[in-house]
Design goal:
The complex is a heterodimer of chains A (about 375) and B (about 450). Chain A is an alpha+beta fold and about 375 residues long. Helix content of chain A is about 30%, strand content about 25%. Chain A has 2 domains: about 5-15 and about 185-330, Aldehyde oxidase/xanthine dehydrogenase, molybdopterin binding domain (Aldehyde Oxidoreductase, domain 4), CATH 3.30.365; about 20-165, Aldehyde Oxidoreductase, domain 4 (2-Layer Sandwich), CATH 3.30.365.10. In chain A, strands 1-9-10-11 form a 4-stranded mixed β-sheet. In chain A, a hairpin with a 2-residue loop joins strand 6 (about 130-135) and strand 7. In chain A, helix 1 runs parallel beside helix 2. By secondary structure, chain B is α+β, with helices and mostly antiparallel strands. Chain B folds into 2 domains: about 25-125 and about 190-280, Aldehyde oxidase/xanthine dehydrogenase, a/b hammerhead (Aldehyde Oxidoreductase, domain 3, Alpha-Beta Complex), CATH 3.90.1170.50; about 155-190 and about 285-455, Aldehyde oxidase/xanthine dehydrogenase, molybdopterin binding domain (Aldehyde Oxidoreductase, domain 4). Chain B has 13 helices and 15 strands. Chain B has helices spanning about 15-20, 55-60, 110-120, 170-175, 220-230, 255-265, 275-280, 320-330, 365-380, 385-390, 410-420, 430, 445-450; strands at about 35-40, 45-50, 60-65, 95, 100-110, 120-125, 160-165, 180-185, 200-205, 210-215, 235-240, 270-275, 290-295, 305-315, 340-350. In chain B, helix 5 links the parallel strand 10 (about 210-215) and strand 11. In chain B, helix 5 (about 220-230) crosses helix 6 (about 255-265). Chain B is globular and about 80 Å long. Classes of the chains: A alpha+beta (about 375), B alpha+beta (about 450). The interface between A and B is large, with 140 and 142 residues.
Chain lengths: ~375, ~450
């Protein structure tokens, strides 16, 4: 038995928002008489922390403390449309909806404060829950007092509504070409994975992951790191452990419980280094791009590349289970693992291709001709 | 104090870690709540010859058995709003296309009685040969899963595949010093949420249905329920927003619609929660993908052109797969600029559980396939894996396969960051390189024509 170590690299990109857009999120904001802020949106928090991120966006847009703001995403009667929490759209599109709503509410706060202070609202700013005259901060009112005056003297409910929607980008079916950008932003990442491969058992252990993500702006760095680390664990499942059909295309041996279907657990946790780059998007909230989905995309390929570095075999069916690794080593020992070389063509994995598997008369071939 | 940029504690984190967060299964059930269990297909592919509900309906405690005849619109697609034709019945009518496909929903006074009633239903089938290997979907004599065949035929322009065409791919392959081909097959995985699919539907006296849902998308799921039941939106109220793990699997509206139909039929609140076994075996999965790539490369490491064929295993029905394949096609060059492209992708049906969105939908398979492929190219050319990536990286002003000008890429900087953290020293130019528009050595002839104006976007 020998343990071999290897290192693999990957670089990826991922779009923010639904592909081709056309996916609205809407929100509304109201102030209580003491200036505390209620935000209503239909944006489900799937555990990633979008309620927290949205609260931060609203707090800074309004200029009030974070703990003044309460997010309610509990139902469709009090909340406006949100297409949903998928497509890595929560922070950018849901976040823009609450940002726009908060900006509208801020306009009303400033209008009423301007009347109370007899100052043009354009000369006012809000910070730390206080409306202050720009350049003359001794002239000020608390947002609490403004909200109280709105309620008891002005007879106004301070609200704001916001809607984020980018138009649907139609495509040319022949070329795939779009005239409008089909996403809200693009995020980028790179990953270095280190593995240890046991050539007797075929077991691969990922020992180290170094990852860097460009998220535009980390609204909440701890939650971004949570996405990077949680996504990495899911990526380990994809790369090494999980599959519904272990003998795909056969349906035999489907796992039906946690004994027969293995997800990564803490024993699989590698040493993780998470790095964040902030290269802002043009129109995301505070420059944010997405992080959610891409966080499990960079590891499976980096691990496969590290396995090659360790033992000199390409495992191109994920996950790289011990069985697949051992079969690849067997092919290598039998001299069957290398590519077929034909002139300037280098053909890997010929036995997996439709050219080898489809019936001779089938209409599917690679490459297809027009 | 600024909130943005601060690692503030998660809003609902204390509730999650102390077990006090209320998930759908924690919502108290009103008096009189009935419990649901599904009759599911015991075969991968079959025609229903006969169903007899007599014994099941006569069991004490059984209140209703919902079949396709109870659903105003039984077949409505999750992507109907985007023009994807509906193909999946909520409850099977005469044909069964996957193991576990729901045929009927029994509601009774307890889960045990509902399960007993399901077991008492007589089901006679004519089993048919299933199709599982999507590479054989085109074979003469292959089982025909749908009346229109084994792959999705309704892409825009009447095409049966998603295409990307850019540049002159044949010229690139002629010019290439090397053509590297490979096949990549990332497999299906389960979403494995801690909270299995669950909902509670409570009819109000007004006739409005209050639907406690674990959906990731309340308005989307409400639209699906409204379409099946033909109800205006003021007759539905989704209550949710807190999800015990979704990862894409809870974009499928798995339980809400049938539960709502059952609640209307039984005139009682109805709760349906899937067992862990159902979650593993009949909830939708991430798709298995079959990806073939041929890259035309120059000996100094430029990717001149790419031909790619993708088969996206949709399982028995389309669900979100046409969307996922389109997203896949838009990103099939990964984080790199390749000016000559011929991509063809098919959504292929098989007799497995329908596949659906999962974290990274459509692009996880791109990253997996293209990044291993690029490593193979680097190895064949004996070029450093960092350098081949930095050389071909997306830069400001480059255009994607579908003509989008890139404005704020970070392929270069993210690679430089991980190289530094890994202790791998990049050579001079690669260490100082930025994502600025291409000039000089980074603007070889084959990349001139693809440049766009980043100010336009």
């Amino acid at each position: 038995m020998t343990r071999h170590t290897g290192r693999g690299l990957s670089a990826i990109e991922y779009p923010t928002g639904m592909n081709q857009n056309g996916d609205p999120s809407q929100a509304w904001v109201k102030l209580k008489p003491d200036g505390r802020v209620d935000v209503f949106a239909g944006t489900v928090d799937i555990g990633q922390g979008s309620k927290t991120v949205h609260t931060q966006i609203v707090a800074d847009t309004l200029g009030v403390p974070f703990d003044w703001v309460t997010m309610d995403v509990s139902n469709t009667d009090s909340s406006a449309v949100c297409t949903g929490t998928f497509a890595s759209r929560g922070t950018f599109i849901g976040g823009n909806a609450v940002r726009f709503a908060a900006a509208r509410a801020k306009e009303r706060i400033l209008a009423i404060a301007g009347d109370m202070l007899e100052i043009d609202p354009a000369d006012l700013e809000i910070e730390d829950g206080e409306v202050r005259a720009i350049g003359a901060p001794q002239k000020k009112l608390s947002v609490s007092d403004v909200a109280g005056a709105a309620t008891w003297q002005y007879g106004e409910l301070i609200t704001g509504t916001g809607a984020a929607l980018k138009p649907f980008a139609t495509l040319d079916p022949q070329t795939g070409r779009v005239e409008l950008p089909p996403h809200s932003a693009i995020s980028y990442a790179a990953c270095v994975a280190e593995v240890e491969v046991d050539d007797q058992t075929g077991n691969v252990r990922c020992t180290k992951l170094i990852q860097c993500y460009d998220v535009g702006r980390a609204i909440n760095p701890a939650l971004v790191e949570g996405q990077i680390e949680g996504g990495a664990m899911q990526g380990l499942g994809l790369g090494l452990l999980e599959e519904c059909y272990p003998y795909y295309p056969s349906t035999e041996h489907r796992g039906s419980d946690f004994n027969s279907y293995h997800v990564p657990s803490l024993v699989d946790l590698p040493e993780v280094t998470s790095l964040i780059i902030e290269n802002p998007s043009a129109d995301g909230p505070f420059g944010a791009k997405a992080i959610g989905e891409m966080a499990n995309n960079a590891q499976p390929c980096a691990i496969a590349n590290a396995i090659y570095d360790a033992i000199g075999v390409w495992v191109t069916e994920a996950p790289a289970t011990p069985e697949r690794v051992l079969r690849a080593l067997e092919r290598k020992a039998a001299g069957e693992d290398g590519p077929r070389r034909d002139g300037k063509r280098v053909v890997f994995d010929g036995h997996l291709s439709v050219n080898a598997v489809a019936a001779p008369g089938a209409a599917i071939r690679f490459p297809l001709e027009d | 104090m600024k909130s943005v940029g601060a690692s503030l504690p998660k809003y609902d984190g204390i509730g999650h870690v102390t077990g006090t967060t209320v998930y759908v299964d924690d919502v108290p059930t009103p008096n009189g709540t009935l419990w649901a269990k599904a009759l599911r297909s015991p075969a991968h592919r079959a025609n229903i010859k006969r169903i007899d509900y007599t014994k099941a309906a006569a069991l004490p405690g059984v209140h209703a058995i919902v079949t396709h005849e109870d659903i105003p619109v039984n077949t409505y697609g999750h992507l109907s709003g985007l023009g994807v034709p509906a193909d999946e019945p909520l409850l099977a009518e005469s044909e069964l296309r996957y193991l576990g496909q729901p045929i009927a929903l029994v509601v009774a006074e307890s889960e045990a009685i509902a399960a007993e009633a399901v077991a008492a239903i007589t089901l006679e089938l004519e089993e048919l040969e299933p199709l599982f290997d999507i590479r054989k979907a085109w074979d003469p004599g292959a089982p025909q899963i749908h009346q229109w065949g084994n792959w999705y035929t309704q892409f825009e322009g009447g095409l049966d595949r998603r295409q990307i065409r850019k540049g002159d791919v044949d010229a690139a392959f002629d010019r290439a010093d090397l053509i590297v081909e490979g096949v990549y097959r990332p497999q299906a995985i389960e979403h494995v949420p801690m909270e299995t699919q669950v909902c509670l539907v409570v009819p109000e006296p007004s006739g409005k249905l209050v639907i406690h849902s674990c959906t990731q998308a309340m308005y989307f799921s409400m639209g699906v329920v409204a379409a099946h039941l033909q109800l205006p939106l003021n007759k539905l109220k989704f209550v949710g927003g807190t999800v015990g793990g979704g990862f894409g699997g809870k974009v499928d509206t798995a339980t809400e619609t049938l539960c709502a139909v059952a609640a209307r039929k039984a005139r009682r609140p109805v709760k349906w929660r899937w067992t862990r076994e159902e979650e593993f075996l009949v909830s939708s999965t991430r798709a298995p993908w079959h990806v073939e790539i041929a890259d035309a490369v120059s000996k100094d490491g430029w990717i001149l052109g790419r031909k790619m064929l993708t088969l996206h295993d949709s399982g028995a029905y389309a669900r979100f797969s046409p969307y996922g394949l389109t997203k896949h096609s838009f990103h099939h060059t990964g984080a790199y600029t390749i000016p000559n492209l011929r991509f063809d992708g098919y959504v292929v049906f098989s007799n497995r559980v329908p596949t659906t969105a999962m974290r990274g939908f459509g692009v996880t398979s791109v990253s997996y396939s293209t990044e291993i492929h690029l490593q193979r190219i680097a190895h064949e050319l004996k070029i450093d894996p960092y350098e081949i990536r930095l050389k071909n990286a997306n830069r400001i002003g480059d255009t994607t396969g579908n003509g989008v000008v890139i404005t704020d890429p970070s392929t270069v900087s993210t690679i430089q960051m991980v190289a530094e953290a890994a202790g791998d020293e990049l050579k001079g130019d690669y260490r100082t390189m930025t994502s600025a528009m291409r000039t000089g050595d980074l603007l070889p002839e084959h990349l001139v024509g693809q440049l766009g104006n980043p100010e336009d976007h």
